[in-house]
Design a protein that fits this description.
By secondary structure, this protein is an alpha/beta fold. The chain is about 40% helix and about 15% strand. The chain contains seven helices and seven strands. Strands 3-2-1-4-5-7-6 form a seven-stranded mixed beta sheet, sandwiched between helices. It is globular, with a radius of gyration of 18 Å. It starts with a strand and ends in an 11-residue tail after the last strand.
């Protein structure tokens, strides 16, 4: 199985780290993707643009290595995302390459516009990745170009998103009891870097609360969005 997690900024992945690590440990292929470098964080006020990208890429590489995942950065611009087709198409081409079975992303109504736009293009890319003519726009049609043509990803994709209280989509819990120390390690890394007042103990308490909802010690909580729903026999 191939699992792709698509988020806006390094640290957004904290809501599903245990899930990613659990799948990687099982032997699944896992990839972490960020649509921006999170370059507008106040910690980088005195850094050059290239230095910010270097630091962020080091952060992403460390997190991915800790989880057991591949990783990829796009450069769509922190707080500049629009959700337009060109952004979706970049992601669709990655889908076609990685061929994910499951995709994780933000909820549709997060307060941060980058989060909402990331959720939008993550969903839109599922359809764009199915259409060869879209994936290969601008490619030549001659025989010598055949090996360079992108193959569409037409298999069903299960899409899961961070939980939103405004959504009635089905909720799932993932038992992360065995992964909790890894999750705590990554949270602590970010918490110390950013100087968050939200402590590792506070963070673990939220995972424990999700666990109580589902009968385990620690859990992560997601909602499932049907990209291509199964056929029904009748409407009612």
């Amino acid at each position: 199985m191939r699992l792709l997690a698509v988020f806006s900024h390094p640290d957004d992945e904290l809501g599903c780290l245990g899930t990613l690590a659990k799948h990687a440990k099982r032997g699944d292929e896992v990839m972490l993707v960020w649509t921006t470098h999170g370059e507008l964080a106040s910690q980088f006020d005195n850094h050059s643009d290239s230095e910010v990208r270097r630091i962020r890429q080091e952060h992403g590489a460390w997190v991915a290595d800790t989880v057991g995942a591949q990783h990829h950065f796009f450069d769509m611009g922190d707080s500049h995302m629009t959700g337009e087709r060109s952004e979706s198409l970049q992601l669709a081409k990655l889908y076609a390459h990685f061929q994910p079975d499951v995709v994780l992303t933000w909820s549709d109504d997060s307060p941060h516009p980058d989060h909402r736009m990331t959720a939008k293009i993550t969903f839109d890319a599922i359809t764009l990745a199915r259409i060869p003519k879209i994936l290969n726009e601008g490619q030549g049609g001659h025989s010598e170009d055949i090996e360079e043509m992108i193959t569409a990803h037409r298999q069903p994709v299960r899409l899961f998103q961070y939980v939103s209280s405004a959504s009635a989509r089905p909720v799932v819990h993932i038992d992360i009891g065995e992964e909790i120390e890894l999750v705590k390690e990554v949270f602590t890394f970010y918490q110390e870097f950013y100087g968050w007042s939200f402590t590792p103990e506070d963070f673990l308490a939220t995972r424990a609360a999700h666990g109580r909802e589902s009968g385990v010690k620690y859990a992560e909580k997601l909602q499932r969005r049907q990209a291509f729903a199964p056929a029904l026999e009748f409407l009612i």
